[in-house]
Amino acid sequence: MEAVMSFRATSRVSFQAVSSLNNRPKFTSSGMSLPISRTLMVEQKCRIRAQQSDSKDGSATLSTVGDSEGDALKIKEWEVARLQDEIAASQGIRIRRRPPTGPPLHYVGPFEFPLQNEGNTPCNILEEIVWNKDVEVSQRKERRPLSVLKKALENAPPARDFIGALREANLRTGLPGLIAEVKKASPSRGVLRENFDPVEIARAYEKGGAACLSVLTDEKYFQGSFENLEAIRSAGIKCPLLCKEFIIDAWQIYYARSKGADAILLIAAVLPDLDIRYMTQICKMLGLAALVEVHDEREMDRVLGIDGIELIGINNRDLGTFEVDISNTKKLLEGERGEMIRQKDIIVVGESGLFTPADIAYVQQAGVKAVLVGESIVKQSDPTKGITGLFGKDISF
Ligand SMILES: O=P(O)(O)OC[C@@H](O)[C@@H](O)c1c[nH]c2ccccc12
């Protein structure tokens, strides 16, 4: 990093390259504290120069502090993150992994620095969740580094065959295999079930004929937890478990496995192709299934271009707007896409907004071999009966 830039000055403004836990630049009450990429530095230089001419004696001072090797590394990391956002954007991904940083819009200091900060507000709920997740994961990682986590895997219960269970259920019932979701609340629906006992719900689902379960682990937006996942696994539930989490870092995959997950979710609206490739490899290594979730044609085409994908979820809910439309499943399975999916023997899961036997028949007709259902069954006082109602018949063993 450039050492100290100094212009003769009447006032002095210090930029400190400090990063927060998640390497995200921070704004502290004691002053400005932000990592500065070279580009930004150049911009700032220009702005200072512009302001210089406004000042009485035509001068200003700008100095950088904290230019240790560690800080330089953090700045590099930040620059890499911005680059990753650019790559993601080129793949049509609107969700940025972190806020693009910069001081608050109306900062008033010795100088007013109109740094780039538009877009420091999340563009939608999915982006907000991802930004929060980034902070959460950084904190969790500090407590349990990957090396420690890898050791913990030795004591984790063995991974079970998630995809095999879906295929089996589909053959057994002639209906889509059910992934029944243990979900207390969601940002779109609020609290779905007040009296929420995750193990009791999981047992009821299993009894009702669910092939697999999906367990929400996000705390902030879904009131889920890894404790719920762990509890369901250690209660002796046989159904393989999907850890329903917003995965943005490979560390989370190891963590999910250590808590007893048999499958994890990868959201194409959040993850660039390279991440999906890398993360599915990790899943294979750990014996986990990866459910890769798409919502539109572009995401579907990206995912179909990645080798080794075995399970694709079509979400009928737009995670940005919460809009639900079950014809989305049909739309994404029409024509060549459907053909390719059959050729590759990929299992497709119809996700969200499924309430009635007619809904199930509709997505099955469209080509799904499995469905992921939460709200319509978790809300029932007896979730076992909820499953029978959803399929219009008893699908239990
Ligand atoms: O409750 P529903 O409408 O039946 O939806 C279940 C599931 O598809 C939904 O919870 C979901 C699909 N993809 C997600 C990604 C994150 C969180 C939640 C989800």
From TrEMBL:
<keyword id="KW-0822">Tryptophan biosynthesis</keyword>
<keyword id="KW-0057">Aromatic amino acid biosynthesis</keyword>
<dbReference type="GO" id="GO:0004640">
    <property type="term" value="F:phosphoribosylanthranilate isomerase activity"/>
</dbReference>
<dbReference type="InterPro" id="IPR045186">
    <property type="entry name" value="Indole-3-glycerol_P_synth"/>
</dbReference>
<protein>
    <recommendedName>
        <fullName>indole-3-glycerol-phosphate synthase</fullName>
        <ecNumber>4.1.1.48</ecNumber>
    </recommendedName>
</protein>
<dbReference type="GO" id="GO:0000162">
    <property type="term" value="P:L-tryptophan biosynthetic process"/>
</dbReference>
<dbReference type="InterPro" id="IPR013785">
    <property type="entry name" value="Aldolase_TIM"/>
</dbReference>
<dbReference type="Pfam" id="PF00218">
    <property type="entry name" value="IGPS"/>
</dbReference>
<feature type="domain" description="Indole-3-glycerol phosphate synthase">
    <location>
        <begin position="126"/>
        <end position="388"/>
    </location>
</feature>
<keyword id="KW-0210">Decarboxylase</keyword>
<dbReference type="GO" id="GO:0004425">
    <property type="term" value="F:indole-3-glycerol-phosphate synthase activity"/>
</dbReference>
<keyword id="KW-0456">Lyase</keyword>
<dbReference type="InterPro" id="IPR001468">
    <property type="entry name" value="Indole-3-GlycerolPSynthase_CS"/>
</dbReference>
<dbReference type="InterPro" id="IPR013798">
    <property type="entry name" value="Indole-3-glycerol_P_synth_dom"/>
</dbReference>
<keyword id="KW-0028">Amino-acid biosynthesis</keyword>
<comment type="pathway">
    <text>Amino-acid biosynthesis; L-tryptophan biosynthesis; L-tryptophan from chorismate: step 4/5.</text>
</comment>
<dbReference type="InterPro" id="IPR011060">
    <property type="entry name" value="RibuloseP-bd_barrel"/>
</dbReference>
